[in-house]
Design brief:
InterPro entries: Bact_Lucif_Oxidored (IPR050766), Luciferase-like_dom (IPR011251), Luciferase-like_sf (IPR036661). Keywords: Monooxygenase, Oxidoreductase. This is LLM class flavin-dependent oxidoreductase. This protein is α/β, with parallel strands linked by helices. It has a single domain, classed as Alpha-Beta Barrel (TIM Barrel). The protein has 11 helices and 13 strands. The strands form 3 sheets. The protein has an 8-stranded parallel beta barrel, surrounded by 8 helices. Strands 5-6 form a two-stranded antiparallel sheet. Helix 2 packs parallel to helix 3, helix 6 runs parallel beside helix 7 and helix 10 crosses helix 11. The two termini are 13 Å apart.
């Protein structure tokens, strides 16, 4: 299994100390997270996209570019890019630039997002989100794969013989499809034969398993071999301690603080509280043995090769502690237990006419 540390750059008062970081302090905290993740052997670092409090992640390509400058190996993911509301020309330019500045370490996870506040900001309705996502992604692929693009659609003005600059550094920037709530996302991924990344955060296992199963079924429909399906999944928040009782006690104030925010209501989680999530959901809070057992249980259902975790909301010292514990006590076991073909070679890049093939 491969491992991603990801963040939505959530910035709320610390539930235990009451400390509130300034915006500048929070961004510096994110940079430290990414550097530490690379030092501890994580495979990727991801920045999500939100357009409202308490999140400061409205510009993932800018944040990831800053991370690229401070790291050298770790892959850089968008978790997710809310392509349903973005101009594909701007996306093509911004992320091709980041691809160059990172030396070909970029991978996009695209989706429609789960926060309805972004629709009025960008001029589409929530009812249009799936059609918008499909159209914008088709154009983005065309802009990255072709030159002199002529195009006409519904969600932006026509293009005539447009070649976006810069061209991507990688021969093909890998794209994953974020999947949280609808078979429309898994359908789009299957159509293109591209991997999915299940949110696996706010609902019971059965809901996400149904979407992943649908993805594999539709891969076959579109002529792709389901045996080659590549699946990633989130794990929600992480908190480890020597015993599960201690971990739950220490994490409970953080869980309650986030779930009392207005933004958490957009997730529409059925879990009543932390105990319900621990028993019936994916949250990774407990001893190392408990967390390993839960991840293995979810892998049996999903067959995923990549796991994403997050530590936002904790103090910086606790973030450091949790990531070190996870790297020492959990990652080595799961690397042995769960094979992964993802990221088995260097990213594919175009370097002065030389083609180096395959990032997977």
């Amino acid at each position: 299994m491969k491992f991603v540390l990801s963040s939505l750059v959530m910035n709320i008062p610390n539930a235990v100390t009451g400390e509130t970081l300034t915006t500048q302090q929070k961004y510096q905290n994110i940079l430290k997270q990414a550097v530490l993740a690379e030092e501890l052997g994580f495979d990727a670092y991801g920045i999500g996209e939100r357009h409202g409090a308490p999140f400061l992640s409205s510009s993932p390509p800018v944040v990831l570019t800053a991370i690229a400058a401070k790291t050298s190996r770790i892959r850089l993911l968008t978790t997710v890019t809310v392509l349903s509301v973005l101009d594909p020309v701007r996306v093509a330019e911004d992320y091709a630039t980041l691809d160059h500045l990172s030396g070909g370490r970029l991978e996009l996870i695209i989706g429609k997002g789960n926060d309805p506040r972004h629709y009025p900001l960008f001029g589409i309705t929530e009812e249009e989100q799936w059609d918008s996502l499909a159209e914008r992604y088709a154009l983005l692929k065309q802009l990255w794969n072709e030159e002199e693009v002529t195009w006409e659609g519904r969600y932006r003005s026509p293009l005539h013989q447009v070649t976006t600059q810069p061209r991507p550094y990688q021969a093909s920037i890998p794209v994953w499809h974020g999947s949280a709530s609808s078979t429309l996302s898994t359908e789009l991924a299957a159509k293109y034969g591209e991997p999915i990344f299940s949110s696996n955060t706010f609902h019971p296992q059965a809901k996400y398993k149904a979407l992943i199963d649908h993805y594999r079924e539709r891969l076959a429909h579109y002529g792709h071999d389901p045996k080659n399906a590549v699946v990633g999944a989130g794990g929600g928040s992480l908190y480890l301690a020597d015993t599960s009782e201690e971990a739950v006690k220490r994490f409970r104030p953080y869980y309650d603080a986030f779930h009392s925010t207005a933004s958490s209501k957009h997730n529409k989680t059925p879990f009543k509280d932390l105990d319900d999530n621990l028993a019936n959901g994916p949250i990774l809070v407990g001893s190392a043995d408990f967390v390993i057992e839960k991840i293995l249980n979810y892998h049996k259902a999903y067959g995923h090769q990549v796991l994403s975790i997050g530590v936002d909301g904790l103090t910086e010292a606790e973030q450091h502690e949790q990531l070190e514990r996870f790297a020492k006590d959990v990652i080595p076991v799961l690397r042995r237990e769960i094979p992964s073909t993802v990221w088995s070679t260097n990213p594919s890049v175009l370097q002065q006419g030389e083609v180096i093939v395959s990032s997977r």
